[in-house]
Amino acid sequence: MTGSRVVAESVSRGHHVTAVFRRTPPDFSHPDVEVVLGDVTDTGHMRAVFGGVDAVVGATRPAPGAEDTVAATVTALLDAAAGKRVLVVGGAGPLRSPSGGLVIDDPAFVPAAWRAIASASMSQLRACETHAGDWVYLSPPAMLEPGVRTGNYRRGTTTILTAEDGSSGISAEDLAVAIVDELENPSRDRHFTVAY
């Protein structure tokens, strides 16, 4: 969901994109999109794919039940990027909650059914923090769904952003806007979040 929107947003701004898919890719019939099949854990292949790029967006999500693979996956991605800027789209779990503590422990943002993926985002961020690569970690808000591109969002650092009603969300389209904004104009933040 996020990756395809990052491709669309990037191309709309005049960037050439190499889109990597684990399985059969969707049809991106655009001259500025090169589609490649690949598995991020195949570091040698991915290093070759990343050889001609300026930056990498890691927007992979494990299948249900495979959440324990995220740390190894992000480490392989950072290894393959070999010095390229990598923006990792993670999860909201590691953010601070307005009620104190972390979002992962706040049922207002992480119901029991989401606990495994929220826990995976904790492991993913820890793997980034121990890697010497040039990475930035984006924690989306609690709710990320397909929607409309407005081009508007608020940016924060390590505390979840909420609306007046306490909700925390953004469309996948506007998350892509924030991702491409960060790639075009990198901040000094290693961990940031966005929301409406």
From TrEMBL:
Superkingdom of the source species: Bacteria
Pfam families: NAD_binding_10 (PF13460)
Signal peptide positions on this chain: none
InterPro entries in the record: NAD(P)-bd_dom, NAD(P)-bd_dom_sf, Polyketide_Oxido-like
Domain (NAD(P)-binding) ranges: 2-186
SUPFAM superfamilies assigned: NAD(P)-binding Rossmann-fold domains
Family annotation (PANTHER family): FLAVIN REDUCTASE (NADPH)
Protein name: NADH-flavin reductase
Organism: Amycolatopsis roodepoortensis
